Amino acid sequence: xxRLQKYIARCGLASRRQAEEMIREGKVKVNGKVITxxxxxxxxxxxxxxxxxxxxxxxxxQTYILLYKPAGVVTTxxxxxxxxxxxxxxxxxxxxxxxxxxxYETEGVLLLTDDGELxxxxxxPKYKIPKTYLVETDGLITEEKAAxxxxxxxxxxxxxxxxxxxxxxxxxxxxxxYLTITEGRNRQVRRMCQAIGLNVVYLCRTKMGFLxxxxxxxxxxxxxxxxxxxxxxxxxxxx
Length: 239
Known about the structure:
This protein is an alpha+beta fold. The chain folds into 3 domains: 2-55, RNA-binding S4 domain (Structural Genomics Hypothetical 15.5 Kd Protein In mrcA-pckA Intergenic Region, Chain A, Roll); 64-125 and 211-235, Pseudouridine synthase I, catalytic domain, N-terminal subdomain (Alpha-Beta Plaits); 130-208, Alpha-Beta Plaits. The protein has 6 helices and 17 strands. Strands 7, 8, 9, 10, 13, 14, 15, 16 and 17 form a 9-stranded mixed beta sheet that branches. A hairpin with an 8-residue loop joins strand 8 and strand 9 (107-113). Helix 1 crosses helix 2. The longest helix has 10 residues, at 226-235.
């Protein structure tokens, strides 16, 4: 037996968290019956699972694509405002979804996949996957402010986890530094900087785990190698 949301993720339709939302919204049927319970379990060999009328089947081969997201692109599969999405930057009709989010104005490393289980683990706070951002501000980052970022910043949704700060340069006109965090809250880096009086004018995620932008042009993408996929899974204890 297998939890319903895990099975949906394994089929490559969505991450486990997205699958839970689909269940809550009544979009999932098992053997023709709508299921809204989070604890529901199914037998993948016998039960018929459908999401919005589409029957699911597990995939043998899964896809992992690394994208250098540009600013002005939405990190979602569909946008009601009809803005360009990250899927519009990829060729073909592959059914992929982004792992985590980069906001509209932010550039950088973004992983897209149809492996829901890996996506769920990479974004789960338990695994503390480091993400490094290049930050440029229009104000001065002092050693005191850098120390506050490193120790943790109190935001409206709680204290942030300790971070790493590497200053490239600073002046009254502007500063440039790298910030490494292990969380994925909404607009976290921008909010952390704002809390210490710094306005972010440019933000780029340069690394996610060991994945980086090397060899990618802005808006470009590549498929991960089998070795990279294996290494990613090892980071989160997935065989």
